[in-house]
Amino acid sequence: MSSSPWHHRIPPLLRRHVLPFLLLPLLPLAALLFSASAPNPFVSSFGCVPDLAISFFLVPSSLISLSDRSFSPEVADTDIWSARRVVDWRPCVWWENASLPALPAKTNGYIRVDCYGGLNQMRRDFCDGIGIARILNATLVLPKFEVAAYWNESSGFADVFDVDYFIQQTQGFVEVVKELPEEITSREPFRVDCSKRKGQFDYVEGVLPALLEHRYISLTPAMSQRRDRYPSYAKAALCQGCYNALRLNKALAAKGSALFKAIPKPFLALHLRFEPDMVAYSKCDYPGLSSTSLDAIEAARGDRKSWTGDAARTWRNRGKCPLTPKETAFVLQSLKIPTNTTIYLAAGDGLLEMEGFASVYTNVYTKSSLLTGKDFNLMHGNTKAALDYYVSINSNAYIATYFGNMDKMVSAMRAANARYRTLALSRRAFANLTALGLEGVELADALWRSHREDFVMGRGTALPDCFCESTL
Ligand SMILES: *[C@@H]1O[C@H](CO)[C@@H](O)[C@H](O)[C@H]1NC(C)=O
Ligand SMILES: *[C@@H]1O[C@H](CO)[C@@H](O)[C@H](O)[C@H]1NC(C)=O
Ligand SMILES: *[C@@H]1O[C@H](CO)[C@@H](O)[C@H](O)[C@H]1NC(C)=O
Ligand SMILES: *[C@@H]1O[C@H](CO)[C@@H](O)[C@H](O)[C@H]1NC(C)=O
Ligand SMILES: *[C@@H]1O[C@H](CO)[C@@H](O)[C@H](O)[C@H]1NC(C)=O
């Protein structure tokens, strides 16, 4: 897997017949939105599972090929971005133009947020931490971005984000300091780990006593919180801190900008998520894959056995299974995205089965194809992820195949910047429609209708609490 061809610009592998609808120019257009997305793909509701290895949910390749067909006439005249939006998501007025109560004169203590995982997961937790610090009338110190063995990574917060800008933009929302007061600097914080707490978690009950006692705590936010109980100034701090105060530091922004400039315009940033760990975590079975891919997935699987039999089919129909690159290409074609569209792959190096995509979409760029040299080779996972983030929030269009942490963050920032050509593909619609036996043009038409509806109605979006629906 070491010298994958996706490190380079993908040459036109196969020139397909350009379908009539593909000749239409991309109309400059309205808005975005995504389809329903399951809250947590890793949490299942299955108790026990019959151990039947039947792969009836496999979609044979021949059913998802469109090379020599065209769409039915009534849907053949526009691309997905041309659909007129009825509902947009915008930053809510209550935080963008909030009139805030004064910050407490006396702090209840100092909080450091300890963040783990990939860049966007760490950012998500830090954002929660900003709100928590405000609820507790505490002072925030800069977070600790953990060195994650998995990502082979050493970037801290200041290596990614602009610290001074963050402090400036959060003024009045929450108190932030770069340095701890002297009487505390010598101490390690008292550790409060909320990440494993089950159920809804109340920070005033759960954390304030420790904060008052120790004066300096480190905190890893819980997955689920009683945000409904947050006073509005705490929610405003979270929203402002997360969506108006975090920008890449100068060095990374310059790299991001250089990368952005190198990509031909206009372009679509595509976040494909078909990597061994993702497939293994999803517990989905993909019997049609190459043996190289299957080996890589098996190696990442650990004790996570994939679902089989009825359970596997139900799981898939609930939209739990990542789209393969080939399926992704089919859905994009169904959305009338021309196969010569310039596509920036916002993804790591571990993608599997890319041939299935690159044989249809032939203008694909990656960061390693565009940025070369020592500088780039020395970049770590977090800083590389930051480049994908930068390009994705600035691209003409953004499509996610899986609505994960990065996709939520990117979609939110795009909404904040009024970039509405944003869409998450519906894994559920794809699974359901293929399970019904649809194929070829029929399948493409049905996918078009379901994605168009989602896009127009702004339905099922998982944009976080800081965004409000706005009817056009
Ligand atoms: C894609 O093909 C169409 C029709 O041939 C052409 O007008 C358009 O310029 C092409 N776009 C790109 C990015 O090559
Ligand atoms: C928020 O305030 C800004 C600046 O005063 C103003 O331009 C904008 O219209 C306000 N937004 C809303 C939604 O009221
Ligand atoms: C924070 O301060 C506000 C008023 O300044 C007060 O109403 C609230 O109870 C305080 N909360 C905590 C957790 O100390
Ligand atoms: C982690 O990074 C170091 C230095 O950047 C490198 O030498 C090492 O091979 C990397 N390990 C893995 C597992 O990628
Ligand atoms: C998917 O299929 C299930 C059962 O087959 C059905 O209940 C559900 O409504 C379908 N969902 C969509 C989005 O089509």
Automatic annotation (TrEMBL):
Localisation: Membrane
Q: Which CDD domains match?
A: O-FucT_plant
Q: How does it sit in the membrane?
A: Single-pass type II membrane protein
Flavoprotein among the record's keywords? no
DNA damage among keywords: no
Q: Which GO terms describe its molecular function?
A: glycosyltransferase activity
Q: In which pathway does it act?
A: Glycan metabolism
Q: Which InterPro entries match?
A: FucosylTrfase_pln (IPR024709), GDP-Fuc_O-FucTrfase (IPR019378)
Give GO cellular component annotations, separated by semicolons: cytoplasm; membrane
- The secretion signal range is 1-38
Give any single GO term for biological process. Answer: fucose metabolic process
Q: What is its main location?
A: membrane
Cite the PANTHER family for this sequence.
O-FUCOSYLTRANSFERASE 13 (PTHR31741:SF2), OS02G0726500 PROTEIN-RELATED (PTHR31741)
The record's similarity note reads: Belongs to the glycosyltransferase GT106 family.
Kindly provide the name given to this protein in its UniProt entry.
O-fucosyltransferase family protein
Which lineage is the organism of this entry classified under, starting from the top rank? Eukaryota, Viridiplantae, Streptophyta, Embryophyta, Tracheophyta
